[in-house]
Design brief:
Rossmann fold; Dihydrodipicolinate Reductase, domain 2; globular; 6-stranded parallel sheet; 34% helix; alpha/beta; 2 domains
Length: 330
């Protein structure tokens, strides 16, 4: 692809997710190049940029936003900084891919969306798994009636990193906790598959004094229409899993690696079972390419900022339920 037809990305921060996944994804994409990286530590920015073959580094986020050659920014900063830097990026005329969760509250997400709309820039939340074609295929199987009517969905996303005491995930004011970090995945997946919003949320959580009282494990129930529910658990102090199961009247779909990892999934019907197979695709690259087409006006963003606001409303309810030990009506 010619240089005139590439999105020049700037990276605000040197977080692990950026270095490990999103930057390589942009570099593997058909439409984008990583043109600059910024950190509040100039030496760290320089070192990280060199490691990842990024030509320019800056010692502040402001300097990167002032770079007129940058078209879009990816924001992998701690959750409490998403709103500020998304709005500042929009005001600088940059399109924004913001790491999930979009913000700390739905109200913050609304303010971010308003700022981006006012500036005429694209805003997307970085739920990379949704851009993989397997979820389109999964929905096709359901719509074709292969598993009958959906009766329930169960999702998990857990890992154990509890010994890393200084991790930003374990700081309440920064938006720490498992619901923000990984619970948002099964929540967004259920909304995606069912094509509707939940009506109520009930969550029970392990609030850890050792980790600034953030939820280190949470188990939840989201109530959808027709008696369908998502049951889910998420955690940062439990063995690793990231699974999804959709149960119907006549069959079920099992996704053993629902958000990260191999893409294949199994379908169980009255006729037997089969595996749906997919090629190795970089879902971070697919995410970057989809956003580029939206920036160029070639296609609408499949998951616009309004979707992120709706997901945050559910997270707001889940956090309130976990902290107050009550069922929250949405």
């Amino acid at each position: 692809m010619s240089a005139e037809r590439q999105i020049r990305w700037g990276i605000l921060g040197a977080a692990g997710i950026a270095k490990r996944a999103v930057i390589p994804g942009i570099q593997e994409s058909e439409t984008g190049v990583t043109a600059a990286l910024a950190s509040r530590d100039a030496e760290k920015a320089k070192r990280t940029a060199e490691e990842l073959n990024i030509p320019v580094s800056y010692g502040s986020y402001e300097e990167l936003l002032a770079d007129s050659s940058i078209d879009a920014v990816y924001i992998p900063l701690p959750n409490h900084l998403h709103k500020e830097w998304t709005i500042r990026a929009a005001e600088a005329g940059k399109h924004v891919l913001c790491e999930k969760p979009m913000a700390l509250t739905a109200k913050e997400a609304e303010e971010m969306a308003e700022a981006c709309a006012k500036a005429g820039v694209v805003l997307a939340e970085a739920f990379m798994y949704r851009y993989h074609p397997r979820y389109t295929r999964l929905k096709e199987i359901i719509q074709a009636g292969e598993i009958g009517e959906i009766r329930g969905i169960h999702g998990t996303f857990t890992f154990n990193n509890a010994k890393d005491a200084n991790n930003v995930r374990y700081k309440r004011y920064m938006g720490g906790g498992s619901l923000y970090d990984v619970g948002c995945y099964p929540i967004s997946a259920a909304r995606l598959i069912l094509g509707e919003e939940p009506q109520a949320a009930t969550v029970h959580a392990l609030l850890s004094p050792e980790h600034d009282e953030v939820d280190m494990m949470a188990s939840g129930l989201l109530e959808f229409s027709k008696g369908v529910a998502l049951t889910f658990d998420c955690g940062m102090w439990a063995a690793f899993r990231n699974t999804l199961e959709v149960v119907g009247t006549d069959g079920r779909i099992e996704v053993p690696s629902a958000f990260i990892g191999p893409a294949n999934f199994k379908v169980f019907t009255r006729d037997g079972e089969r595996e749906e197979e997919f090629p190795q695709l970089n879902q971070y690259a697919l995410q970057a390419d989809t956003m580029a087409r939206a920036i160029w006006g070639e296609a609408d963003l499949p998951y616009p900022a309004e979707d992120a606001i709706r997901n945050m409303k559910v997270l707001d309810a889940c956090l309130k339920s976990a902290n107050e030990r009550v069922r929250i009506t949405l």
